[in-house]
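Long-time lurker, first post.

We've been arguing in lab meeting about whether S-adenosylmethionine would sit comfortably in this protein at all. Half the group thinks yes, half thinks no, and nobody has a model to point at. So I'm putting the question to the forum: if I give you the sequence and the SMILES, can you give me back a predicted structure of the complex? Inputs are below. Any interpretation is welcome too.
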Amino acid sequence: MRGELRRKFEAKIKEVKSMPFVKWVGGKRNLLDYILPNFPNEYNHYYESFIGGGAVFFSIPNKPENTTISDNNFELIIAYKVIQKEPQPLIKLLKTHQKNHSKDYYNKIRSQEPSDQVEMAARLIYLNKTCYNGLYRVNKQGKFNVPMGSYKNPNIMQEDNILACHEALKNTKLLYKDFDEIEPKKNDFIYCDPPYHPTSENSFTSYTKQNFTETDHVRLRDYLMKLVKNGVYIMLSNSNTKFIRDLYNSDKFHKEIVYAPRLVSCKPDSREHVEELLITNYPINIS
Ligand SMILES: C[S@@+](CC[C@H](N)C(=O)[O-])C[C@H]1O[C@@H](n2cnc3c(N)ncnc32)[C@H](O)[C@@H]1O
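Top reply:
Settle the argument with this. Predicted structure of the protein with S-adenosylmethionine, as tokens:
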């Protein structure tokens, strides 16, 4: 990009605060006032290994220089990578999707399996902004299977926010990995927001082909226990269920109850105030 154009581009992306570029079930927007002030005072590297829509990451005021974010949803991580490296072609393609949006167009894009990364990212964002309830759900074969929602004017192409996210992701390492492949070291900080342990049979916990089962919650606890022994600061959010309280029963963990409005099932009208747990290995202040 030539001098003048680049200066304008850079000025524009600095103006806007970044926000999640996708709606994501379990997004932590409603808990930010508890989470952000309770980050440790000092740490070396920031890790967030269930990044989803990134409500926490995008809201961190002064992003640490060293940050790694990850998720085991392949298409989602590709979308982050595209926004980091080539926001302009993505914006162009989203403009096309915005212009052509209709039921037939939605079904056509939904049935495609692009291998090009920009097309893959644009497809994910387009479907996320137009599908029923902004839900990311795939069938056993890994195919996105959510029907179109009934939005009058879905805001598919949020150019300013994509540029703000591009800026926010500048110094960030992006990894498509299972949580237990992430290796923070002493004095690093990791925030984990796994799929909720279900509070009812209708709870939504499946963002990929594999559900996050109780065995995974146990695996996560064992992994976090190992990190605590290695001197890593940890913060975890989850449902306030007996199963989770029992899992984190050790005196190594502090548990605080916080209250947040949350979409508790696939039904758009079933929002409730639910109790959640913030679990850390250092004292925090919930007032
Ligand atoms: C509750 S959502 C995170 C929401 C996020 N904090 C936000 O604000 O949007 C949980 C995320 O965990 C990811 N996930 C599920 N199982 C995983 C695993 N085994 N390893 C890494 N990520 C996983 C899902 O793809 C999903 O994006």
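For your lab meeting: Residues 214-229 form the longest helix (16 residues). The CA atoms of residues 4 and 42 lie 38 Å apart. Whichever side wins, do check it experimentally.
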